[in-house]
Amino acid sequence: MMANIIIGIVFFGIVAFAAYKTIKSMRSNSCPGCACGCSDEQRRSCGC
Amino acid sequence: MKIALAGNPNSGKTTLFNAITGRTEYVGNWPGVTVEKKEADLNRVFRRIAAKAFAEISGGAHSSGRIRVVDLPGAYSISPFTSEEAITRDFVTGENPDVIINIIDCSSLERSLFFTTQLLELGIPLVIALNKVDIIRRHGDKVDVSGLADALDCRIIEVSANDGEGLDKLVAEAVKASVQDREKLPAAGFDTAVAGAGGDEDGLDRARQAYAKTITGKYFFRKRSANEITFSDKADRVVAHPVFGLIIFALIMWGVYALSINGIGGWASGYINDVLFAEAIPDALNSFFESIGLSPILQMLIVDGAVGGVGAVLGFIPLIMVLFFCLALLEDSGYMARVAVVMDRYFKKIGLSGKSIIPMIVGTGCSIPGVMATRTIEDDTERRITTILTPFVPCGAKLPVIALFAAVFFPGATWVFPSIYLLAGLVIIAGGLLLKKIFRYEGENISSFILELPEYKLPSLKHALRQMLKQAIAFIKKAATIILVMNTLVWFMQTYGWNLRPVEDQSMSILAAIGGVAAPLLLPLGLASWQMASSIVTGFIAKENVVATLAILLASSEDALYTATGPLAEMFTPVTAFAFLAFNLFAPPCFAAVGAMNSELGGRRWIFKALLFQLGVGYAVAMLITQIGTLIVYGRPADGALASIIIAAALVGLVIAAIRIRNGKTRGISNTMREENAL
Amino acid sequence: MPLSKARPGHCGQIKAVNGNEKMRKFLFTLGCSEGEEVTLISVLAGNYIINVKDSRYAIDRNIAKAIELI
Fold this sequence. Notes:
The complex is a heterotrimer of chains A (48), B (679) and C (70). Chain A has helices at 2-27, 40-46. With 48 residues, chain A is mainly alpha-helical. Chain A has one domain. The longest helix of chain A has 26 residues, at 2-27. Chain A starts with a helix and ends with a helix. The mean pLDDT of chain A is 73. Chain B is mainly alpha-helical and 679 residues long. Chain B folds into two domains: 2-221, P-loop containing nucleotide triphosphate hydrolases (Rossmann fold, 3-Layer(aba) Sandwich); 244-639, no CATH class. Helices cover 63% and strands 6% of the residues of chain B. Chain B has a six-stranded mixed beta sheet with strand order 2-3-1-4-5-7, sandwiched between helices. Chain B has a two-stranded antiparallel ribbon with strand order 6-8. The longest helix of chain B is centred in the last third of the chain and has 38 residues, at 641-678. The radius of gyration of chain B is 29 Å and the shape is globular. With 70 residues, chain C is α+β, with helices and mostly antiparallel strands. Chain C has a single domain (3-69), classed as SH3 type barrels. Chain C is globular, with a radius of gyration of 10 Å. The N and C termini of chain C lie close together (7 Å). Chain B binds chain C through residues 76-77, 79, 81, 107-111, 114-115, 205-206, 209, 222, 226-227, 229, 232-233, 236-237, 240-242, 245, 337, 340-342, 344-345, 348, 353-354, 378, 448-453, 455, and chain C through 11, 19, 22-23, 25-31, 33, 39, 41-42, 44-47, 49, 51-60, 62-63.
């Protein structure tokens, strides 16, 4: 049971963080990573 | 403190920017790569140099504070010709940088000095970075730097941004100039030259040109005339030949893709896919989770959903890395400007010009910068058409999809990628012709083509390696965020039914229900299964998701996804597999690229038209491949043949109607013009 | 004589630049204007490769027609 809780929290923590990053960059119409030559405004709003 | 980098296109501003800030902004050896201003702090080494220079002049009283460097798009003059040149003007005149570093490619000194004279008048401290000194040294030419500096009355530093020569001195001088040169007036010699010309702007500009000519003559010593035929010119005769040029371009692109997909890149990808993500990692995770007694549902979510999906995408990293390495080398060599010259005549036929090829070449990496690069095109209609066509070029994110399907359905074949590119080329031409008919007024003149041809140079390995690394990191970031999130969602939706209980049969799941709605629409394309429909839908978030989603949906299969006998082979025939690739290629790109298109097209009406067009093209091409392909290869009509004939007829009708409406408007306009003339 | 009629290797002075205002201004900033020297290096794939002020440019036939040489 402990294992389920710990692994669950870790995994969903990672996914939640990924979702946060994704939504942040989606709002500025860019993908996370910004290899695609985002503008400075886009970069600022997605924080990379 | 703010340092602005300004100069002519292709003078090396971004290379310098990257060198002093440690960033890896996109650089290419052709004019017009940077279309937006980029800002960053000085990196640690140069920050220390700046601090030292500041302490020297202020006696250690103050610190220089944070130093921002702003890289501006290239411009030949302060009065803008295209929208990205306006950014440069607005910044230097509106945002008062503390110092401008004017980068001059010293092999075209006279032309560059025209812009310099305009910058000098702004009253902002100016330091000239005389770039590419290594090149003129090799030619045996010489610049009298101290003489030139006296004449212009500003600091001039010889640099080579490519190998970092002189940059420390440049930064130190820029810091000093920002404080010491603040109250300085333009050089006396220049003042009289301009003042003597009278008031109007044209006169002033002519005086500037004359002044630039005089001082270039005085301080620049040329060993041989620039009119002489050089090696570059001789190479151009072959490379930009109307027929050989096309063949050479095709061969080079074929080579690049052969190397990245079938060569080292493909080999390394195959290894990672086969060994790492198919066996080693899932096995290790499974045994670990079983040993700690994890709930089977959570175990499946992590191993099949997250790791399986993300892994299926991550496996393609080597392929992407080799591709971007090769493209960076090509771009750095100066070859791409020649491709634009060769393509110009063909693009003219579809109402575009050679300028439109540059966004498309940039688009081989990612459609977003490709779409943004359309800003260098002056004509509105031409720019819009290019914006709509640029996503048709297979971008880096579409590669994993193509590579996966090529491995399953056409194992060992080297023709898959070239044929996809050929198809893309043909569709771009056909699409351009259509758009020309739909959007362009009769008799509207096509914009003219002018492009500076940079000299060929040996591409820098270091630069290519850095670009490659940057792309790899971005790819991993993308896989770890947007693709991971989508995979988790997809896994839940294919595991649970509407009652939020795990389903026995995948086809009862939420995803199957949603995908099932779209599936009948894809019947004429031969893609009528909910799995295909849902992978197409997730592909609009990011194209790599197509691979990831298929990996999750087919995870229960015994065989690995990318083997010729694997689960994919049961879903597609080689013909419908190709149609699926075509649909993914031409149907609207990912949301981020759609966002970029939206901001470049300007207006909801245009983005709506653009998406409709792309969807129509994707649908029509995939349908044609499936229907005609099935008929030829298997000798029987494909499913939905009747429906596809009706749809094809409807599409043709729609296009004709659109052209009619446009022609009607044109006639309307010419009528009103006639009436006005009559009045 | 317009530049479009020149032979490769021809080096001449520009008499006038015709065409629309915007293009003329742009060519001017490159140093391609009245009184300047221009060399036609070659004609490639329908484009004219010219040398103006130590730089090479590819220009299309329309622009080449607009540049009048002495």
